[in-house]
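Researcher: Next sequence.
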Amino acid sequence: MASKACCTIPPIIPTNTYTTLGTYTTLSGMRTYVSGSPASTTGILIIYDIFGLDFPQTLQGVDIISSSTSTLAIVPDLFHGSPMPISNYPPDTPEKSAALRAFFSGPAAPPKTVAAIKELLPVMKETYPGVQKWGLVGYCWGGKIVALLSGEGTEFVASAQIHPAMLDPEDGGRIVVPHFCLATRDEDKDVVEAFKARVQGKEGVVGEKSLVMRWEGTFHGFMAARADLEDKENLEYYEKGYKKLVHWLKEVL
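Model: Next structure:
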């Protein structure tokens, strides 16, 4: 097992005062946030939530992952600068619901996104030839993309989804690498349990090293764009969540 030190992460900084540690580059025509050393031998591709690339809460999480695991973390802007406005969430009006449905079937359509990631992979490998293995992390909608990219023939060695959207036990049955899933009270309990049974019930290294859990005390989005780091309870769960994720990543990468 990993030591207690594996759970250590940097102090969490309030959103309005956080200064990102990474830089921006362009990969496959996409503006891409890069955190960590290009000389790292391990990389993590991170897929944001539908609200896009430019939320300090998300980028601080990326920096935590990279610095705490000594990996290169990259976050491509899959929406090319046109994410879903966060003002449309929660979808509590007919107009907001319609906008969300249109976004999920258009710019955020999972098949389209999976294809874009597969086109990005060779560019990643060419740009960072020292990286010998890649992991995969996704938030919310990004978690669905992660699950779809974790099946037979995947080029990733491990994958994780945080407060996942569209969680499907059938996807869990197709996952072939160690997998981490951190759900919240907003994800259906029965669906999470069924997903857990499909993933952790697998024989061999996938079942042994996978971890699926549901935290009743927090909400969908608490580790990404919807995080309110001025709220004491959210801050505590944000820190706890990243410690849990970092500990797991250091076990499997």
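Model: The longest helix spans residues 232-252. Strands lie at 23-27, 30-35, 42-47, 72-76, 133-139, 158-162, 179-184, 211-215.
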